[in-house]
Design goal:
This protein has about 325 residues and is an alpha+beta fold. The chain is built from nine helices and twelve strands.
């Protein structure tokens, strides 16, 4: 991210830790801090004794130390999150900022601790995913496109649970969706991808399912449009529409596996889907597949001219027809 971090101007103390109040917060005060080992801290100051709630909801997170400490100068307790490795400062800052935003409307200390522990559990799932880090711009577009198709899947054909189960891209299955007798690979197209579709492996356009489709979404960044949505907004919309508890839990797990956490960094960009096009991937579709590779050739990446795909175009409705 290469941006200044809130701990940069906090001095390392000889003992305990130094803190600075985070402005524009809610009723429950939160602080940036640095301890005597120069480690970065996020501190939440809570009135009262919350030891029991903390013991019941505590969870460990790789790379982050979580502790509830008595403040000797008052009747308060401090929830202290400590970053163990300085190299992860950007990511820790983003996670703490997302927690801070979640705490803004909270007025009671026990509710604030509950919100914090819930966020930390989501962090744990995120940190356990593949190479916990901020998603690249290309990955953000890809996730937005996949979630757009997921939305259409449960709105038009499948139950909430079956639609979430069909989303396999987060679990690194060869295609992004597998359901009934078909597989669907999803691609996002931005301004730099107007004439080609990028294929990242020799397995993406080959499937054991009876039918295979390639679905493209043209995404246009429109920050000022009321109809545009960010990845964070799209995730919140889906979470609000899912009505099956197991589907909601599975959706959260798959988001974490993808590498997504609800960070402020993903409030932008905001996208509009300016077009979509489906293609039926059949035998003579222009593609490179594993079954056709010479011995020893692997990890193939290539691009397909969209105009060469045109003869294989079909209606978006065809992708879901017959299920």
């Amino acid at each position: 991210m290469n941006r200044p971090l809130p701990w940069d101007d906090i001095k390392t103390p000889d003992i305990d830790y130094n803190v600075r109040l985070i402005p524009n917060g809610g009723v429950v005060p939160a602080f940036w801090g640095r301890d005597s080992e120069s480690r970065c801290l996020f501190v939440l100051s809570l009135e009262g004794d919350h030891s029991r709630l903390f013991a019941e909801g505590r969870t460990s997170v790789h790379g982050i130390e979580v502790d509830l400490q008595r403040d000797p100068a008052s009747d308060r307790q401090n929830l202290v999150l400590t970053l163990e490795r300085q190299v992860d400062g950007d990511l820790f800052c983003a996670l703490c900022e997302s927690l801070f935003e979640g705490l803004r409307p909270v007025e009671r200390p026990e509710a604030a601790l509950h919100v914090a522990l819930t966020h930390i559990k989501r962090w744990k799932a995120f940190m356990a995913g593949r190479n916990a880090r901020l998603l690249s711009a290309e990955e953000i577009r890809g996730l937005f496109a996949e979630l757009t198709f997921l939305t259409s899947l449960y709105q038009e054909k499948l139950s909430h649970a079956n639609a979430v189960s069909a989303w396999t891209g987060a679990d690194r299955v060869h295609q992004d969706f597998v359901f009934a007798d078909r597989a669907v690979e999803i691609k996002s197209l931005a301004g730099t991808d107007r004439s080609t579709v990028r294929i990242s492996s020799e397995d993406q356009l080959e499937s054991i399912q009876d039918l295979l489709f390639l679905m493209t979404y043209r995404l246009r960044e429109t920050p000022d449009s009321e109809q545009a949505r960010s990845v964070n907004e799209l995730v919140l919309a889906i979470e609000g529409e899912l009505q099956d508890a197991d589907a909601i839990e599975e959706f959260g797990r798959k988001l974490a596996a993808y590498g997504y956490a609800p960070l402020q960094e993903y409030d932008k960009p905001r996208f509009l889907v300016s077009g979509e096009q489906a293609y039926h991937v059949v035998e003579d579709f222009p593609k490179i597949v594993r079954s056709g590779l010479p011995a020893g050739v692997t990890r193939v990446k290539y691009q397909i001219d969209i105009e060469r795909m045109a003869p294989f175009g079909c209606r978006s409705e065809d992708v879901l027809e017959g299920i």
